[in-house]
Design brief:
2 copies of one chain form a homodimer. By secondary structure, chain A is of the alpha/beta class. Chain A has 21 helices and 18 strands. In chain A, the strands form 3 sheets. In chain A, strands 9-14-13-15-16-18-17 form a 7-stranded mixed beta sheet, with helices on both faces. A 6-stranded parallel beta sheet of chain A has the order 2-1-3-4-6-5, with helices on both faces. The termini of chain A are far apart. At the A-B interface, helix 2, helix 4, helix 5, helix 6 and helix 8 of A face helix 2, helix 4, helix 5, helix 7 and helix 16 of B.
Chain lengths: ~525, ~525
């Protein structure tokens, strides 16, 4: 038995049974060992950013880590952007990074780089195993570290000779990580929160793991009982939504509006989230969003027992049950395809149980409203701001679940990790991808104005325009084996969505918007 | 005048007049300032790995840095793999990385990350400007640092408020870097080299900047006069080739063959290169390629005066002129498309002056032989082993030069940075791309065997197979605006290549090989 076999056996023993892989030469023994690890599902990705984003999506759905298999420093770097998003989503994730043999590293061969320093930038957990005999224990520690709490990116570096080397003593039982309990709530902080909720103008601010329907329902009871506002972070890792599910008010992305949203609050009680801050700085707009003098109470930090905290609040405040709002879903739209009718088409057709991966950016403005009373579903967003998360996260969510996944992409963002489409086709995953074509970086056109820059010249405009030449999004999908259709009206989009939901496997729908629309 | 204006003025004053850009919100003032910087050519890339690879290609052709424009940590990370290749190519390159405003960084907003640590992994030069007044001086220092010698990756971090902030005092003259002279040759080392060449079985081993036709010709005189072997590194940054150009023997990629190539040498004299080592480690194959006891003389390290060293060797050894071999180019092949007939088709059609960016990997084995007597051309290869260099480097080379560029890609490697095709179309660049389709990671199938792993199972085979579904390479190009054609025989490939060379603008040729062929 070699190191790779021991590693795979340990992963299987820890229920890590999916590996999103983009292997190279130094990972060949790991790849070969997959033939003897039937419980591990190896899924080939054609670019590492697809593999890491897929592991993020998998973890968002299951709460447990998938493995990635990456090739030395460049592989880790190619996967870094979506690992950044996973870090911000605080999900457990396990990178296996193949590296040069231990005795080869000092030779500074072409692929040599400082993998440890690169991994350190992810602010998670890192270990480079140097002996085949240590591999099982290190792998179990990696899984443990990935769980946190809160979840984090664990990176296990696997030198080639550690992978191919013989394991001296095969243990009778492979080491196992234990899934940790969430962190306990601090009692004095809880008392402060209770006092504030009873006497001050409060906002209960939810994020992270606190956006399940059970918890938002509890939070709504607390808010009703104390006349507090119920808010949530702008970019949720995963939230339950739909008719009959509580719907906290989402913090607005644009700082000036967010400041306005929060300006009446004397106290903000955080549950599962950190203090909200501006996504970017802008001239003459504050970076901190909470008003001057507003007290921040960090009741339940990320990784803590948010459910317990909310239950305890309900109990302490004797907060009565509240009726959760139900409503009719949006009617199917007709006519021109706009961001409004796009949102309405999604809302009108969304089947129960769908998982949405939303990277529609400027096209997303109307989506939350239009899907408010759709059947129950889950929504995942771009937690770390690193573009290119949508397709890979949708891929990983589909691997993790039997449920249909709806990926909402824009042309600009789709181009970062479009290779995910091929893996969706290969694995026959039930993913509906809507590719919104507005032929521009519409969000940047908006930002160019917002930062106070002038827009009168051709050079700057050309850096934000995607229309020369026009990207044929549906052809990009077809070329990777995903059936594609183009919708140029709201009616066509409704039909395409309905057909896609009724058809097993992936489907790509290009939604052609007026140019530059946002 | 704001910081962005001062930065652009300084870049223009330093003849940095191309910027491969993938901007975001924090770079909007830089983008807006392009309207007032007519000498700067902003070129939009749809993924950062395209931008950095293009800057590498630009530098390989011109010897001077292009700028990139990247968006915070994720932008730098997405560009990292091709920056690694540029680092190994030792070319000058200037990253401009937009970042949060100085006062915003401590808030840990979603896009916050440790950009300095990330840049440190590139082992080049780093500066984060904190005042608009410092920006011009820092930019000039960055250009200076990029030049080396040897060339390196310089990263200038541009916080948003430094970009939008007013410059207090506008200098009458923008600061300028001076292009440095190459490092001097060490005299005692030169004497050792002379003595060795006169008395020992020597190999003259060329690399880096020493592969110009002038220098290889001098090196061939030295080799002939001393009965030494003339070798070159496996992966050249750029080399002159063709009929009438000296042709050093290329070190073989596979370590066991390279060891055999070097085994007779008592002394290896390095010119422009470092000691050759195994690209990867393999069980039971040495990682150092030079024989036990072989003396290594580092005559002219990377960044030093390799031309001067070779001229001095010729003079000291009174090495007579030698006739440079001329020959007939390969005849056009016919019949089945194989790696042999592919190579012959390239050799039979290559016009004079073409710049080749070669990432054809397993399909490249016969290329050097088949193009040996083609008209004079230049050849660029994958210096750092990070896949996805070919299309971006070809793009950058075409921007840098009026000459036709030929990019040789494989299906596996093409998928890493295929977004480069769109920019080729947008800029109307004279690039011929041959996409070799063998529907597998053929190099990994070879490596799987080489590392001693078994191949009898389905799980491992599936991680190396690209044929389910088949990627339609020409459709991927067409969808991005590049005219495409498919060649299924050697005859069709010859016709397609000839047509492409005669047609302005980019063209994509899918060369369909038998599956898995290498």
């Amino acid at each position: 038995m070699n190191g790779a076999h021991a590693l795979l056996a340990t992963l299987e023993a820890n229920d890590v049974d999916v590996c999103f892989a983009n292997p190279g030469t130094s990972e060949m023994h790991f790849v070969a060992a997959l033939d003897d690890a039937p419980a591990m599902r190896g899924i080939l990705c054609l670019f590492e950013g697809v593999a890491t984003g897929a592991a993020d999506g998998y973890a968002r759905v299951t709460g447990t880590p998938a493995a990635t298999l990456l090739h030395l420093g460049p592989g880790l770097a190619n996967g870094w952007a979506n690992l950044h998003n996973a870090r911000r989503a605080r999900v457990p994730l396990l990178n296996i990074v193949g590296d040069h043999a231990t005795y080869h590293a000092h030779l500074d061969a072409p692929l040599q780089s400082n993998v440890q320093l690169l991994a350190d930038t992810l602010e998670g957990w890192y270990c480079r195993t140097t002996s085949s005999d240590d591999l099982a224990a290190d792998a179990a520690r990696a899984v443990q570290a990935a769980f946190g709490p809160p979840g984090r990116v664990a990176t296990l570096v696997l030198p080639a000779d550690v992978s191919w080397g013989d394991v001296g003593t095969v243990p009778s039982r492979w080491p196992r990580a234990t899934r940790p309990a969430p962190l306990a709530i601090d009692e004095p902080t809880f008392e402060r929160a209770i006092a504030a909720l009873r006497s001050k103008r409060c906002a209960l601010f939810l994020g992270g793991g606190a956006l399940t329907k059970e918890q938002t329902s509890l939070a709504q009871r607390v808010a009703s009982a104390t006349s507090s506002r119920l808010l949530m972070e702008t970019f949720a890792t995963k939230m339950d939504r739909g008719s009959g599910v509580a719907s906290p008010e989402r913090l607005i992305y644009l700082s000036e509006f967010a400041v306005d949203q929060l300006k009446e609050s004397e106290v903000i009680v955080l549950v599962g989230s950190t203090e909200p801050v501006g996504f970017f700085a802008y001239p003459n707009v504050p970076s901190r969003l909470v008003p001057e003098g507003c007290e921040i109470i960090q009741l339940a930090p990320p990784g803590s027992d948010t459910l317990g905290a909310l239950e305890a609040l309900v109990e302490a405040l004797h907060a009565p049950a509240v009726a959760l709002e139900r409503g009719e879903r949006t009617a199917p739209p007709s006519g021109e395809l706009t961001t409004q009718s796009f949102a309405a088409a999604v809302g009108a057709t969304l089947p129960a149980g769908v998982i949405v991966a939303d990277e529609s950016n400027t096209s997303s403005v109307h989506l939350f409203g239009a899907t408010r009373f759709a059947p129950e579903h889950q929504w995942m967003t771009l937690t770390g701001g690193a573009i290119g998360f949508g397709l890979p996260v949708a891929l990983g969510a589909a691997v993790a679940s039997k449920r249909r996944v709806l990926a909402l992409e824009s042309d600009g963002s789709m181009m970062y990790t479009l290779q995910a489409l091929w893996t969706m086709a290969r694995e026959g995953l039930d993913v509906t991808v809507v590719g919104l074509s507005n032929r521009s970086y519409a969000i940047l056109n908006m930002e160019l104005t917002r930062v106070g820059a002038s827009r009168d010249g051709g050079a700057s405009a050309r850096l934000l325009d995607l229309d020369d030449p026009t990207l044929d999004l549906s052809q990009l999908a077809l070329a990777q084996g995903v059936p594609s259709v183009r919708a140029t009206s709201a009616d066509e989009l409704v039909v395409a969505l309905e057909r896609s939901y009724a058809t097993p496997g992936p489907m790509f729908i290009e939604a052609v918007l007026p140019k530059g629309l946002h």
